[in-house]
Amino acid sequence: MTASTRHSARERILEQAFLLFLTRGFEATSMADIVHATGTSKGAVYHHFASKEELFKAALDRYFVDLVGTDRPVGRDAQGFEDAVRATAATMVDSLAEISSLGADLTAYYRFLFSAIDRHQPEVQAVLAGRLTALTQAAERNANHGEVHTSLDPATLAEMAITTIEGAALLAALEGPDRLDDLINRAVDQFLALVRASER
After folding, report:
1. DSSP state of 194
2. Coil vs helix vs strand at 30
3. How many angstroms separate the CA atoms of 56 and 182, rounded?
4. What CA–CA distance (Å, rounded) separates 21 from 60?
5. Domain spanning 3-55: which CATH class is it, in words?
């Protein structure tokens, strides 16, 4: 078996487990369910993942940490605050579009994330804190270079940006994946217009 075959088998198992966690939840999903969904043997599943908990953690890493973490170049390389906000929004759109492309219901994805907070709170908090820090630093760079003259401090601006993006993403999840780009980017445009209007 080649490395690429092993990798694709692992990814297929991970994807099927993730979809089961979305539709049934962690507790109601058994390893037998995962074996059946992948169409592989029990040995093949256990070769890649020692337990259901390990599979859940791998799904969280693959479908949350890797998708929206601050290691993504689009967010890390953004210099100005507006660019950083738009990059964060683009990451959210791309991430949710990828989840949706698996045939997953986005509201189920949010349920998955909420359950992940109970099981893996430090990992989830680290991603959220990383995004907040990246936006705060971008706002600080703008303030230091005189590009943004607002009465709001950088941390508050960053928190408002995250709240705007997350709120629009949740609304898009409720309304359907075809509204992702429109709702999130429209909310970002309105937020940035308000920030510019607050400049003194």
Report:
1. H
2. coil
3. 31
4. 10
5. mainly alpha
Give the distance between the most distant pair of CA atoms in the chain.
65
DSSP symbols for 109-133: HHHHHHHHHHHHHHHHHHHHHHHHH
pLDDT of residue 8: 87
Q: What are the boundaries of each domain within the chain? A: 3-55, 58-197
CB neighbourhood size of 80 (10 A): 15
Coil, strand or helix at 77 = coil
- Residue 78: CB atoms within 10 A of its CB come to 21
The low-confidence residues of the chain, meaning pLDDT below 70, are 1-7, 70-79, 144-150, 199-200
Token pair in block for residue 155 = 């941390």
Nearest of 90, 94, 89, 23 to residue 59 by alpha carbon: 23
Model's pTM, two decimal places? 0.84
Residue 25 belongs to what H/E stretch?
A: none
